[in-house]
Amino acid sequence: MNPIPTVWLVGAGPGDPELLTLRAVRVLREADLVLCDDLVDDRVLEHVNPAARVLKVGKRGGCISTDQRFIHSVMIREAHRGLRVVRLKGGDPFVFGRGGEECAALREAGMTVEVVSGITSGIAAPAAIGVPVTDRRFAPGVAFVTGHVSGSGLPIDWASLARSRLTLVVYMGVARCEAIVAALREGGLPVGTPAAVISAAHTPRQRHAFATLATLSATVAAHELTSPAILVIGDVILAATELGVAEPVLATKRFGIPD
Ligand code: SAH
Fold first, then answer.
1. Measured in angstroms, how far is the CA atom of residue 119 from the centroid of ligand 1?
2. If you average pLDDT over every residue of the chain, what do you get?
3. Residue 194 phi/psi, 5° resolution?
4. Among 65, 111, 166, 196, which is least packed by CB within 10 angstroms?
5. Residues 130/256, Cβ–Cβ less than 8 Å
6. What distance in Å separates the CA atoms of residue 53 and residue 35, rounded to the nearest whole number?
7. Could you tell me if the CB of 166 is within 6 A of ligand 1?
8. How far is CA 109 from CA 75, 100, 118, 132, in A?
């Protein structure tokens, strides 16, 4: 038997359980204890071992959330007791959502950490409306940024991003949309730059709208495109729509999937 306890940091993908990896499903089936984020879709939890205990530890921005130290201490204590502990996180465990911090705390406590990558919403949400984030006809690459910098986080240089020509994929950005747009405009990004917002991608509540940098925050507000949502800013949006981006378009239909 391995004397060093292991904790699994598992990505749940953006919502639809069909976007779980086979490894994630296997690890969930073998779990004794699952600590799971708010954002994880209930349908994903159907893959958890029925005998396992599932603890919901909310980390939703703006709401009261479970203390990070509490999450660390439960994982460490239960893994030391010999339980197979799984930390289940929305999307990919190492893309925002404090996966790096949790991994560091676990390793510091002498645990082995196994990371099971998941499909991140920053790629899957744009893809759900036909936006290929690195279409090289439109952008040389993509930047994943947070719209919500926590107290300990590094500041974001929006002016450099505005000049970068990269596709900008903003997580946790809808609440601060106006400020983000202002910073990008100040950095020189043309107001006609295409943009899109996708809310609750790959769930039955998925909705999206197209806009331009000039109309993005009004579009978000007008259509109540609320968290969880991804903002995409850049010419790659043109690859998704032949409709142009002058008028916002709202749709609930999933890309490419007929009614
Ligand atoms: N680890 C996650 C991100 C966690 S941060 C991942 O890789 O996807 C939480 C943010 O992710 C939300 O505020 C939102 O910006 C984004 N997000 C997560 N799930 C989403 C979904 N289904 N649709 C749109 N955005 C989502």
1. 10
2. 90
3. -65, 150
4. 65
5. yes
6. 9
7. no
8. 10, 14, 24, 40
Which atom of ligand 1 sits closest to the CA of residue 41? 22
d(CA 199, CA 223): 10
pLDDT of residue 169: 98
Number of the ligand 1 atom closest to the C-alpha atom of 227? 13
Beta sheet of 112-116, edge-to-edge order: 53-56, 33-36, 85-89, 6-11, 112-116
- Say yes or no: CB of residue 147 within 6 Å of ligand 1: no
Counts for the chain of helices (H) and strands (E), in that order: 8, 11
What's the predicted TM-score (pTM) here?
0.91
Tokens of 34: 């699952």
CA distance 255 to 251: 9
Q: Which residues of the chain have pLDDT under 50?
A: 61-62, 242-250, 252-259
Q: How far apart are CA 49 and CA 88, in angstroms?
A: 13
Ligand 1 centre distance from Cα of residue 16 (Å): 13
What SS3 class is residue 148? coil
